[in-house]
């Protein structure tokens, strides 16, 4: 992955599956068509720093095979498809993402009308971002990755929102701060996917869970100017997301994200009162789905972000 190239946002339509197979650089892909009818496809790609996001549409059932290099971590998010589909020997039935990375490559009998989102990053960069947390996606085997249905929906929504935002406001990609926040959000999305349902909470006792809740409170309150996220907390305190979730649920009966979300929304409100646009303020604090953001904002403050802007102090 070339980290020196300028940000790039591209879209292409195809009517040839061989042409489409060659579009994702470095995937060494081969497509064979399995269902009848003329093929139609499309790929939208966003590349910046060491991050590659894409959305790919294929109208016909295909046999897809390929292999990525060892430092590439590629996770697919199925966003829409017809019936059927088998990925690396496992049928596409329940909520799952596709881990395309693996020493032996991947083998995919893809269904008709497939819209697949993709998050592709440097494996080493992602592990560095995780800091001293245990390695994820570490078994080096392409497979389906079981995820919570809500996690799958949020990952798809995140990709939709990023592409929509960057197509409407491409100048944002010229801003290093925007790219840095987007990169962190991509890594955060991957960390969410890595937390498989049913993972244990690291065997924490009740007293350890209460101590963890207090540590999180102190961590957040001692960083009044930082956009603290769940991933920051997990990385710096050395705990898993699931352990954090269980600790807050056991101790306070609430979601740990609720406290941090409220704090982030207050920071957005402060930016709006300083005259920043809704888009800049929301993305600055990690809100990428504007429909959800507006709902949460109104739920907390009793008004839409635009109303807060209208009431901002005048010079």
Quick synopsis:
By secondary structure, the chain is of the alpha+beta class. 41% of the residues lie in helices and 21% in strands.
- Total beta-strand segments: 12
Q: Any idea what the radius of gyration is?
A: 21 Å
Category from helices, strands and their pairing? alpha+beta
Distance separating the two termini:
47 Å
Describe, in plain words, how this protein is organized in 3D.
The mean pLDDT is 87. Helices cover 41% and strands 21% of the residues. With 315 residues, the chain is of the alpha+beta class.
What attributes characterize this protein structure?
alpha+beta, 5-stranded antiparallel β-sheet, globular
Describe the secondary structure blueprint for this structure:
Elements: E1 8-14, H1 17-21, E2 30-33, E3 41-48, E4 51-58, E5 62-66, E6 72-80, E7 86-87, E8 90-91, E9 96-99, E10 106-110, E11 114-122, H2 123-130, E12 143-146, H3 149-168, H4 176-194, H5 206-221, H6 230-237, H7 241-251, H8 256-273, H9 278-284, H10 290-301, H11 305-310
Antiparallel strand pairs: 1-3, 2-5, 3-4, 4-11, 5-10, 6-9, 6-11, 7-8, 7-10, 9-12
Helix pairs in contact: 3-4, 5-7, 8-9
